[in-house]
Amino acid sequence: MEKLSSTNGISGFEGNIVDIIKEELETYVDEIQDDLMGNVIAIKKGDKKGKKVMLAAHMDEIGLMVRHIDKKGFVKFSKIGGINDQMLLNQTVTIHGKDGDITGVIGSKPPHIMKAAERKKVIEYENMFIDIGVFSKKEAEKLIAIGDPISFKATYEKFPNDIIMGKALDNRIGCYIMIETMKRIDSNSTIYGVGTVQEEVGLKGAKTSSFKINPDIAFALDVTIAGDHPGIKPDEAPVFIGKGPAVVLVDASGRGIITPEKVKNLVISAAEENNIKYQPEVSEGGTTDGSAIILTRDGIPTGVVSVPTRYIHTTVSIASMKDIEATIDLLVKTIEKL
After folding, report:
1. Which residue from 56, 50, 110 is spatially nearest to 293, judged by alpha carbons?
2. Residue 56, Cβ density class (10 Å: 0-12 exposed, 13-18 middle, ≥19 buried)
3. Which of 73, 69, 78, 112 is nearest to 10 (CA)?
4. Helix (H, G, I), strand (E, B) or coil at 193
5. Mean pLDDT of 73-100
6. Which residue blocks in 7-143 are alpha helix, DSSP H?
7. CA gap 205, 289 in Å, rounded
8. Where are the beta strands (DSSP E) in the chain?
9. Is the distance from CB of 185 to CB of 165 less than 8 angstroms?
10. What is the DSSP letter of 26?
11. Which residues contact 250 (CB under 8 A, 6 or more apart)?
């Protein structure tokens, strides 16, 4: 989990995560494929009468990209994925140049010389820049180029109570769950463990990989907002850390997935029969790869199982390894029921 969290791979540049998945699963599966989109597909074969089951976990994390280098060598950037501007300021970042990684810091106009009205406003990312310690555009261009991906520097920490903290837990948690489920499952179904690309910018990899596989049933593995800290009302995010995985019934108020009854009943019965804690979730927030998979071809029965996580899309996300383990157990038992 630490390796997955600490490794960089923003949307469109997920190759390092692909390498980890291949390394972890090469001795546990029958075949590993790469598709043209960049998805990695690990296949654990069952018998001819078994179902085709897809486990989809997106590999990409939010990040930035070099958009412009000014005459003094300061870098203007674009956001890749959904990022709240207020989390950007004063972050340390890594620009992944063609000849190596370059460290930078995100700066802006100092508050000391702002007018009173300016200090009350959140600084927008358009008014920020990255300082890489050079004094000219020519010097900067020896190190970086337009289009270079940028990831956030962060540490991975273990907290009390089996709590972990790190960057990119959305969705390296899902990647970890997919890897471990593939290792532990023993089923007559053929299981496709898929690391999908570019979820944060349009669910792109899930669309192409699910079309290729055309499974009988699919599960998107992701994280969801934990509503157990100050500032959130219980009805806004009613799933909590430490109380098991969220079984998504609806997300994005129905604009995303509305889980088919048969899939919902399958997952919930597996949880209840095996005394696995779970939390049903009806969400008004974002969506997952499941929303793309369910609409593929003539429709693929799809469910979403998510791990409650605090401070998603920041460098300090927090989740419970107990919830992660419970999610793996739930998936194994659900697939066995097929």
Report:
1. 56
2. buried
3. 78
4. strand
5. 96
6. 15-25, 116-119, 137-141
7. 8
8. 31-34, 40-44, 52-58, 63-69, 75-80, 92-97, 100-107, 129-131, 149-152, 157-159, 163-166, 190-196, 217-225, 246-250, 279-282, 302-309, 317-320
9. no
10. T
11. 256, 257, 258, 259, 282, 283
* Token reading at 213: 């596989």
Q: Which amino acid is at 328?
A: I
Contact between residue 60 and residue 12 where contact means Cβ atoms under 8 Å apart: yes
Angstrom distance (rounded) from CA 233 to CA 116: 32
Q: What are phi and psi of 77, to 5 degrees?
A: -135, 160
Two structure tokens written together for 299: 């429709």
Q: What amino acid positions are annotated as catalytic residues? A: 199
Instruction: State the residue for tokens 């009613």.
Output: 238
Please choose, from the candidates 188, 334, 221, the residue with its C-alpha nearest in 3D space to the C-alpha of residue 273. Answer: 334
- What pLDDT, in 10s, does the model give residues 112-170? 666 666 666 888 999 999 999 999 999 999 999 999 999 999 999 999 999 999 999 99
